[in-house]
Structures are given as structure tokens and as C-alpha cells.
């Protein structure tokens, strides 16, 4: 607070203002006050009041002022029975004139957290957003937990209420991290606070860890459940962020069900966001049904064209099924706001609990010592019949003096001096008690008090152990049913463009140059979404990318229109264009992985009058063969010839290309399709996110061609064959294994039969081919899958109990020879005659190729800002025949590529290869390999330009082998229990056990 003088206190500095004519008369003087003075004094006073007395909780008990007064009022009214909330509101207003509505709302807020208040009646539902009934209809009382943890008048600091008639606590002596357990949110003036609720059980365990000197990590737990990513939680400080998702399950191909909702949302608001996204066409939902009762259940029925996996991701991208929460832990310490992390708050509350327990023990120790002292005095007073000596006393002072003389021989036994008050208490003992005094019972009581005193003193000396035992008692007494509800998980970001439903149709007017989804009378191109980008390539060689709109001008004479995907380096454009200067025609292959929207890019050399003669877009880098027809007026001997795009290397969009003819071209026609010249697509499976990726996250799955498929095995014993689209999602909780599908590989599975509870093993071939349909290969009686593999020589580590005397035995067992390969519906055989306790699959995961290895098989070249440049490694230079010159993409000579028909092979690296032998077929002569050199020369003479310089030709050949060949020729090793002997297991061999 500013200590400056109040603006009104120093009137000598005020400027008098006298009203002029027409502004009023008289001698009144108006004093002007500077605005900065108003701000520094009055506004800061108001802000401080709101911060300290309304919005921000104190760290000691975790309550805002109104909550603290409610808890004090409930304690004052507590008689074990329920009280009407309306009565609680009225009683609370004795301590401070809060509004009745605000007090009622605060009571309901505490009651809905189900920790401090036991409720009766309709208290609303935080999941559905239903409000509580009127205060006169609902009732409340303190919970047993609150009575045990929150209150202790002896350790409470008190203050007078606003009118001085009542006493209220400054803070309540809470012996628990209540602030973190309940959470709090408040908006003050100039700052706000938002502390998220944490799990009751985890907080107790974390407090025990703090007392043991550890540094635990705690994360929020929401009453609504759901799934949360706390990677950016930052201990609840400013700048942190939490992503919370609804728990969504796929019921079947046509429906989803939401089981949990994100914290801070309700079923009503969630459904409204889903309906809104459906109306916008972002997700195709046919019907939303709310079946919420005791548990949340919202069913979503999808339209027939909507994939459930894509719909699930779209829910996270476009609706409140995923929200972001920004915590901001701010608390009041010594009447000042402080920003603290949740770990600091936990340590503060734990140390406060330790201190409160110490105070309680010291108070109890003092009480016990006083009880022992008075019981001993009472015993001496009665057994020594001192009360008879006061019969002849004539005054009160003489009575006290007589008793004091009788106690004098025993005073040395006591820990303190005997006071007049002690003697007065002796005189107040009734004759009935003296007459029935039992010395034995008195001794028993004294021994009990002394025993309790020793325990108290021991607890004080071992205060930390006592506090740990206190928290453990809380956990045992109140922890049941308070397990974590929110699942902790790492999320993979959902890209809206990838999951949005196609809610528009793309049209083009090629002549006029317009593109959009409102041109419904023009040429239809494809379905699209409002978030997609469209790429246009015109006849003049210009390319442009723009956001899809209702109608946008992209330039006249459009040759190609398509959906542009940023970063797609497998979309290859094959182009033949005529240069405007010189008349030569060039062919080029290129990718466009990234551009700037609404900027034109020239795909030719930029000369005037250049034009594109032929263009094709190939999603997987296919290279077709075209027929080039020259002008009839040209002097070329051969006016029609074929050109194969496989002769070209894929480069970037600014490359010049290869000259295919110096003569004018009349027409270029498509002749026949070709295969992809790109390397196979390498994929990984992220087991935490349940998603496929190309970013080397998770388990390596292999290299994929367009016709390849994946197979996913669930923990319930089903399999499903799917494609390898990156939008696929496999639920991590239900999925046991995902791998590349090979129908010829034998599947080995170990499962527990639901009826017999025995471990079974079976081997079978996948006989189905239906995509995206689950097939169960274990009995549907509650059986669960333990391990599954497609390894040719599967080995498991088996732990079983052979006998009670020997205990558990661990062996490595080869499964290949245990059972025969049968149909996928066969039950299989028993794994072991003994009781199996553990089964673990032993296998070596296939190592993913290094970056350099993948480059050796790829012709893809992207822009310098998109991928690293390929470096040519040193090696023997290719042979250079004197009569042949290469067709470099940057060359300007007039020789045409059909020179390969005369025995020459064009090299894509700017140097011709050695002429082919005459024994080669004509197809071999005219068809180059991916590196621009004939197959024979590559094996014998030409080095691999992308391989490390020290690798031998043998290693090059090994790199080109298929994965299936590696699996057929490889041998799997098993290690004995001692870990020393590596023995190769032969076919059918089983380790004895």
C-alpha cells in the first residue's frame, strides 16, 4: 500500500474552482483532485480489499473468507444432524454481511466437491450443469473428515467479527493440503487465481514423501474424469497449460460414446459444441443422444460416410471434447498475494500440518500433566484424610492454610508449585465422591495417564514419524473410493485440416480462371473442406496456392487444380513445357512441399511466352510414359516418339529440367501408367498416442508400399486389418500390438482362457482379408490376450510355480514346437502343466534405418528449406564415353533423350553411363535404374553416391534385400538363465523345463 497522504488531507495543494456565470452562484468552492491520487489511494484500497477479503484463498487453510465463515458457522451449528442451508446462510451472515445468494452459492460449491460437507437433497450436478435446489430445500452437515482435520479451537487464532459481537477464526487449523485437494478459482482486481483440484490419495502420499525428504510430483485430478496431458503443467504456475480430453470410445463403425467430459465443461455445453461443429460440416454427426444418469454417456451416431477414427479426432479438434486450461496458482501469505507452484504449496501445507500436530501434542502433554497432578493431589487429600483437618477451621483462609500444610510433605513429587487454585479445587470435591473413592481405580487411572504422557513425549521427540502415521491413518480411514479419475497421458496434436470432414465441393472455371465451392455450374474437381488449400497450375507455367473460398480468381487457362497438402513430399508433378526463348521443350519432375499462400511461382524458366504442354500429379511419385508429337513443319526425322518420366530425377520446383526436343511440339498425350520411383514409406507406431507417424516416434513398423496393410491385435483377443493412413487411431488401452501385415506369417498367441483360467498357446494363419473389421481368435468368454507375435521363432520368458518348496521358476521357452499351426478359430494347447504366474515375450525389435539409409533409396529432392541436401560421397568417377554427353537438367545442348535407342544410357547425375552390352534387351537399354545407370554397372563399377564411403559392395547389396528375406534367413537367439551362454535355437527346439 502506498503511504502517501490522502488527497483530501492536504487541501493547501488543491486548486480552487469557482463556478462562472451560469454555473451556479454563491461562495461554494469546488476542489479538484488529481487522478493519480485517486488511483494510488482509493483504487488500491479497493483492489487490496477484493484480493484479501473476497477472491484469493489463504495458504494456511485454502479458504476464501466467505468459505471460512461458512465452515465456522457449520461447526457452531453442528449437533450431528443435518441443517437447512437457509439456516446456515443466516447464521453465516452474523460474521459478515455477505449476500445470501453468494453464501448459498459458496455452500453448494463446497458441497459438490464431496469432501467437507455431507449433503442431503438436490445439490445439482457439475457434470450436467444442473443447479441445486433452493436453500430451503437442501440440507448440510460437516463430514467426519472435516471434523477430524479442519477444527481445533485450541490451535485456532481468533478475531472479532465485523460488528464486534462474535468471534471468527483468522484461519482454520487445517492439518491437510486442503487447498490442493479442493482447488479454487477467483478473479480479483488486477490478478486472478486458478488452482486445480488434485487427487486426495496422491496428496496424502505426496505429503508423506515430503516428510521423508523426497520431492514428489503431483498432478491435478478432476471430478469429471477424462484424459489429461500435463507435459506443460509447470507446477500450476502462470504460463502453464493443461490439455484435457473427453474419454470417447468407438462402439462400432457407425457410433461413438463419450464416457467422461473435460473439467470445466458440462454435458449440455459439450453437446452444443458438437452440434455446432456438425452444422458447420466439420464433422458428420447424424444424431446426438444424452443418456447420462449415474455415469456420463453421450452417444453419437455418425453419417454413413464418416469414419469413426477420423470422427473421434475431429471431435478433439473442433469441439469442447478437448480444451486447454491455464492454471495460475496465487495465494495469500501474510496478507500479501504470492505466486507459488503446487509443490511449494504442498510443502508449506505439510510443514504446517507438522507444526499443528506439534502444538496439539504439547497441549495434550500439558493437559495430561495437569490431570496427573490433580489426580495425585486428590489421592493424597482423600487417602491422608486431610479434609478432616479443616473441620475446626474458622475462616476460609484457615481452611486453605490447613490443606496446604497437609500437602507440604508431598509437594516435592509434583512438577510445579501447588497454587491456591489447586487447593480450591480440592475443597470443591463432593462428600459423595470422597465416600466412594476407590484407591485401586485411582491408581489405574494414574497409570493410564502416565502411559499416555510417555506416548505423547515420544511422539514429540519423533514428530516426523508421528506425522507420517497421521497421514497414513487419514489414507486408511478416508481414502477408499477416492482413487484417481483423470487418466494421465501424452497427447499428439490433432491437425484440424487432417480430420475435418469434406463439407464442400471444389469447382473450377478453367477458361475464366475462377476456383471455389460456389461455382456449382462449372467443372467439379473433388470434395474438400473449408480449411483446405487449393493449388492451381496455369498454362503459362505459373503455380499458386490459396485458401479455398466461395469464389477466387487464380488466373486464366487453368490446367491443373487440386488440394494442396503442406509438407507432402510424395506428391510428384510431371511436367513438359516449351521455353518461350529458343523454342526447346523441357521435361521435369518436382515436388512442392511448402509455399507462401497467394504467391505465384514460375515452374518454367521465366521467359515470356513459355507454356506447359503436359502436366500430371502423382500422389505416390508415379512416373508415366507419354507420346510426344512434333509439329508437322519441323525438320525432325521422327515426329512422334515416346518419353518415359522415369528417366528424370525428382527435384524442386525451380529446376530447369531436361531437354526432350529442340523442335516445336504440337501435342503430348498420355500413353501408359508407370510405377512409383520413390522409396517405400517408413512408418512408426506411437504406443502412447495410438497413432502412426513418419517422425520416428515409437515402434518402427517397416517400409510400406501402396498395397501394404497393418494388423492390430487387441487385449481382448481380436485382430483387425487396416490400411496405413496416418489418420488411423488405435486405442492404446485396448491395443496390444500393431505391426505390418503379412498373410503368410504365422501368428503365435498366448492367452488366458476366461473359463478355466489356464494359459493357452496357439499358432495360426490370418485367413480373412476384410478391412476394418474385428475378428476374435480366442474364446469369447472373458479371455484375455497376454502376448502375440508374428516372429518365425517366438520365444517367451515363462515364470511358473513347480512346487511350493521350490517357489517360482523362470525359463525361456520356444513356442514354435509346442503346438501345430491350425485355423484362427482353433483353441490351441495348454502352455504349461504348472501354475503360470508370468509370461513375457522376448523379441528383438527391428531397428529403423538411419536417415542416410533411407536417402539411398529415395529420389525425392525438396526445397533447401524443407529437407537437408544430399551430399555426394567420394568414390570412383563414372566412365565418360567420348561420343556421348549427358542430358543434365541444367544443360542447353540439342541432343534428345531418345539417343538411348542407339545404345547410350542417359545419366541423371550429368554423366552418361557405359554403353550397354548388345545382349541386353531393348527394354533394358531404354530403361535406367533410379540412379541413372544400368544395373550391371551399378553392381560392378559405379559406387552408390548416397552411401558411406567405407561400405563395401556386399553391404550395399545387403541394404537392398527385402525385410521378408531377412526374416526367413535370420536366427533368433535365446539366453539361458545365467545370461552367459548364447545358444542358437534350431527349428522345433524347445528349452526343457
UniProtKB/TrEMBL annotation:
Which InterPro entries does the UniProt entry name for this protein?
Topo_IIA-like_dom_sf, Topo_IIA_A/C_ab, Topo_IIA_A_a_sf, Topo_IIA_dom_A, Type_II_DNA_Topoisomerases
Q: Where is the composition biased (Basic and acidic residues)?
A: 1-13
GO CC annotations on file = cytoplasm; DNA topoisomerase type II (double strand cut, ATP-hydrolyzing) complex
User: Low complexity compositional bias: what residue ranges?
Assistant: 881-900, 911-928
Biased-composition ranges, Acidic residues, are 844-863
**In its UniProt record, which GO terms are filed under biological process?**
DNA topological change
Q: Where is the Topo IIA-type catalytic domain?
A: 56-463
Q: Which reaction does it catalyse?
A: ATP-dependent breakage, passage and rejoining of double-stranded DNA
Which UniProt keywords are present, listed alphabetically?
DNA-binding, Isomerase, Topoisomerase
Annotated stretches, region: Disordered: 1-27, 844-993
NCBIfam families per record: PRK09631.1, PRK12758.1
Listed SMART domains? TOP4c
Q: Which domain of life is it from?
A: Bacteria
Kindly provide the name given to this protein in its UniProt entry. Answer: DNA gyrase/topoisomerase IV subunit A
Under Pfam families, the record lists:
DNA_topoisoIV
So what family is this one in?
A: Belongs to the type II topoisomerase GyrA/ParC subunit family.
List of catalytic residues: 137 (o-(5'-phospho-dna)-tyrosine intermediate)
The GO molecular function terms of this record are: ATP binding; DNA binding; DNA topoisomerase type II (double strand cut, ATP-hydrolyzing) activity
Q: What is the lineage of its organism?
A: Bacteria, Pseudomonadati, Bacteroidota, Cytophagia, Cytophagales
Q: Where is the composition biased (Polar residues)?
A: 935-950
